[in-house]
Design goal:
about 475 residues; single chain; binds 4-fluoro-L-phenylalanine; about 0% strand; mainly alpha; about 75% helix
């Protein structure tokens, strides 16, 4: 049995604190902003089905593995991997997994913060009553006006980055637990209010059927620039990537939160609860948004602006809409905030551990670098949005998103699965998971050894066209 370690950076006050923090990390823009827009772009129900399967057979086992590795190592992901590799008698190169995770977190936060800035901007627009009685066209032009103005986007991005780094500098535990404890349930209730509004639109059934009726043709065929339909595997890869993104997996965020987890807490049960809550929030967001999309004759595949073009219509027409709308965007900002914090935590803890600097110093430097890169995303919605600035038909923002969420997170997850399943001794897994050697452990061990790596590799090989069905 490994000696019992304490994290240098503190511990959660209990299992609940971990559940709250990890849920705070998981539930964020990914659920409310990204899930609806990529579902809309990828044809609806079949995409949702693939995403749900990925959560169940890939996401949950990897979450269990990440929390377990984190708790066993009790350090920043990089040092945790180095330590565990040494203990298990494996190659020290496993530490590069920690490196890749830090880089992924840094890249993701650079654009995450820009989108969170939109949510911040919308707090003030809704509070000012800008959306009262708004039409679909009106909501669309208010959104375009915002994103076409680099100065405003930069200002909001700056404010959000400062907010994030202030919390990170103070240490994640102070404040975070409280924020999540009250704000997450409130966000949930507001989503229910929005679903209630959607139920009263003429297109509730249409919205639900878009979301839950799988149409594989819509998933796997897309029109190219010339209007010809072509077979594509990219949406499946996107669904896989999103399962990682939404659960904050594959880059060490959940690993570092696991490192603050008290000894006794049950890792498997906790992970399942977090994954279920996260999925529920995403599905509710979809149920609120698609009926509004169809009732107003909008385009489901409108892209990254989807929720900012649809939800204001609901707020503009429901009783008390300005109040609910303001509250909603405040809560969305909070949800984004609690996720953003976890994106930089691996890098900041690593700097503290390996470079002898304090948290404040580490936060300032990581924050500055992230802020700087974020300017690329700011500009990719306006000054450099044109085709001449695109690569493979993707803007700077799209490329970053693709590189991180679709490539880096699933690959990170794959290596986490390989490490837990094939490099850790079975006894080490058993010792840390503390769930006994029963059916549940065996199921997890089977999934993490065979199913999860196989599924990720298969989706990737298909994507690069090596095997095709
Ligand atoms: N899970 C977050 C969301 O859904 O918004 C995003 C995220 C946070 C991804 C932390 C990755 C991560 F490590």
């Amino acid at each position: 049995m490994a000696e019992k370690r304490e994290s240098l950076h503190g511990q959660w006050s209990g299992r609940w604190a971990f559940v709250l923090a990890a849920t705070g990390s998981a539930v964020g823009l990914g659920n409310i902003w990204k899930f609806p827009y990529i579902t809309g772009e990828n044809g609806g129900g079949a995409f949702v089905l693939v995403y749900l399967i990925c959560i169940a057979i890939i996401g949950i086992p990897i979450m269990i593995a990440e929390v377990m590795l984190g708790r066993r190592g009790r350090r920043s992901p990089l040092n945790t991997m180095r330590q565990l590799a040494r203990e298990e008698g494996r190659s020290p190169h496993w530490q590069y997994l920690g490196w890749a995770g830090m880089v992924a977190g840094f890249l993701i936060l650079s654009y995450y913060s820009v989108i969170a800035g939109w949510a911040l901007a919308y707090i003030f627009r809704t509070a000012a009553g800008t959306f009262t009685g708004v039409t679909a066209d009106g909501a669309g032009s208010i959104f375009s006006e915002l994103v076409s103005d680099p100065e405003r986007l930069l200002a909001w991005h700056t404010i959000f980055m400062v907010m994030t780094m202030v919390v990170v500098a103070r240490g994640v535990r102070s404040g975070l637990e409280q924020a999540v404890r009250y704000l997450m349930p409130a966000l949930f209730v507001l989503l229910l209010v929005l679903v209630g509004y959607a139920m009263n639109t003429v297109a509730f059934d249409e919205g639900l059927s878009f979301l839950f009726n799988p149409d594989f043709h819509a998933l796997l065929y897309k029109e190219d620039a010339t209007g010809v339909e072509r077979w594509t595997w990219e949406p499946v890869l996107t669904a896989l990537g999103h399962a990682f993104f939404t659960l904050s997996l594959g880059m060490g965020a959940i690993m570092i939160y696991g490192s603050y987890l008290p000894e006794r807490a049950s890792i498997a049960k906790t992970s399942v609860v977090i994954a279920l809550m996260d999925t529920l929030v995403a599905l509710l967001a979809g149920m609120a948004i698609f009926p509004i999309v169809f009732a107003n004759g909008l385009e489901a595949g409108a892209g990254a602006g989807l929720i900012f073009q649809t939800l204001p219509i609901a707020f503009g027409h429901m009783p008390g809409g300005a109040f609910f709308g303001t509250l909603f965007f405040i809560l969305l900002t909070f949800a984004a905030w609690t996720s953003a914090i976890s994106l930089v935590e691996p890098a900041v803890t690593w700097m503290v551990e390996n470079h002898g600097v304090n948290r404040i110093y580490a936060s300032v430097w990581v924050g500055l670098a992230t802020w700087l890169l974020g300017i690329g995303t700011v500009l990719s919605f306006n000054l450099i949005s044109g085709e001449e600035y695109q690569l493979f038909g993707k803007t700077f923002f799209d490329l970053l998103d693709f590189l991180t969420a679709t490539i880096m997170l699933p690959l990170g997850g794959l290596f986490i699965a390989l490490f837990a399943g094939w490099q850790m001794r079975r006894e080490s897994n058993l010792d840390e998971l503390k769930m006994g050697d029963g059916v549940m452990f065996q199921l997890w061990f089977f999934l993490i050894r065979y199913v999860t790596p196989f599924a990720v590799v298969l989706v990737f090989l298909n994507a690069i066209g090596i095997i095709t069905f």
